[in-house]
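On to my pick:
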Amino acid sequence: MNGLFFFILASAVIFKLSSTSLIDGCCSGIFTGKTKPPLCKSYTTSEDMPTVYLRQTIDKNILSESRKAFDWELWLKKQEKEMIEDFEKENDAWFKNKDKAFNNFLNKLEEKWSHYNPRMHEEYQTDLYDVCSNWSDDEWIEWFRTRGLDYIISDFESWFNENIPSYNKIMRSKFIKLSKRKKYEWDAYPNRFYEARYWVHWNEKALYEDPDINIKVSAYLYWIKRRKNEKKQWDCLIKRIKKKYVDNKIPAFTQWCEKTTEAYNNWLLYFYINWIENKYWNWWIKEKKMK
């Protein structure tokens, strides 16, 4: 409790020093920073410290914090640029790969439905080959319209549902690894690592008899504030990246799904007309007899 009281008292002293001119027994007036004020005596406790020297040191801390904040802003902008480039590259690669996979799928699907399929019963639970031996052309057309198209659509749905989750899986995995690695790299910089270790140790030991306690309280509070600001800015950046590249409602991904579905529907209409006009069932029957 005494430690907390002293911490608050030290903070109040720092606030007073940073907002008013100071008068000391040895020096008076506002320190310009051009010369270092002489110390009239050595000090062994915080009460002995000349206030002008305290003000000078706190000003140095403020300047140091400004530089560290500037370095953080530069680093954060660099990470945002790099992450966006990485995700865009991953996006393009996934779409390109899936466009190729979709075209291969359509080619195989067309090949499959243009010929006799001995596994028709196992794949679609249909008794087609048991009942179609004496069908007329109209009966074949009716079957293809009412049953065959449903089977072809189910093939596409299976392919689509198998491939779509891979996007979220890949992007989420990349997001987690990239965000952790980037933040770790920043925290692992030697200056930041040793600074954090120093202040954690200092706070745990609570060395309130240290004659530099007022100065160190000031530096510690600035460090705490800087860490909070960095975390807030980092969390905002991560949230933006996640919303743009990982969450389900991603415009580019939605557009790709719509484009792929439209391409499939166009192909299905073409194949339906072509299958009937060329009477592909005759090929089925002929190939079945040859098996």
